[in-house]
Structures are given as structure tokens and as C-alpha cells.
Design a protein that fits this description.
Elements: E1 2-4, H1 6-13, H2 17-24, H3 28-35, H4 44-54, H5 58-61, E2 62-64
Antiparallel strand pairs: 1-2
Helix pairs in contact: 2-3
Length: 78
């Protein structure tokens, strides 16, 4: 699973969702979805803008966490 770490980055910088939305030129609703990890996809332009505003890398915003039962490559029993 891919985790979105926007909430942690904003907390570290004591920055609000509204402030980052305005600075990164991203709709506040889109920032909210990323912040709360409700989105299924993220536009590269949004990642680019967030990295500029937060002075970070994509790796600081996204993290891969293996699922306990990974569907890809696992053999189903039964």
C-alpha cells in the first residue's frame, strides 16, 4: 500500500491545508483528500507543486508499506 505523508509534512512545518493549497495552486478539496489519504491517484503536477512548496522530495510525501497479505504474487490456498 502507498501511504501519503502530507499530514506529517504539514505538521512538521506547522502549515495548514489551506495555506499549502493556496501556495501550491491546488484545490483545497484535493489537498484535503491527500491529507486524509482518501485519494486513489495523485497528479504529477500536484506532487511537483507540493515538493516545491514544502521543499521536499516525492519520497518525503509518499511511502510504500507492504500489505500483510500482498495480493500480487501470493498464492491463494484452497
Amino acid at each position: 500500500m502507498i501511504k501519503i505523508l502530507l499530514s506529517a509534512r504539514l505538521g512538521e512545518r506547522r502549515m495548514t491545508q489551506s495555506a499549502v493549497a493556496q501556495a501550491a495552486n491546488i484545490r483545497p478539496a484535493t489537498v484535503s483528500h491527500m491529507y486524509n489519504e482518501f485519494c486513489d491517484r495523485i497528479m504529477l503536477a500536484h506532487l511537483n507543486n507540493l515538493c516545491k512548496v514544502l521543499n521536499c522530495t516525492v519520497g518525503d510525501l509518499l511511502e510504500y508499506v507492504p500489505d500483510e497479505e500482498d495480493e500480487i504474487g501470493s498464492k491463494k490456498k484452497g
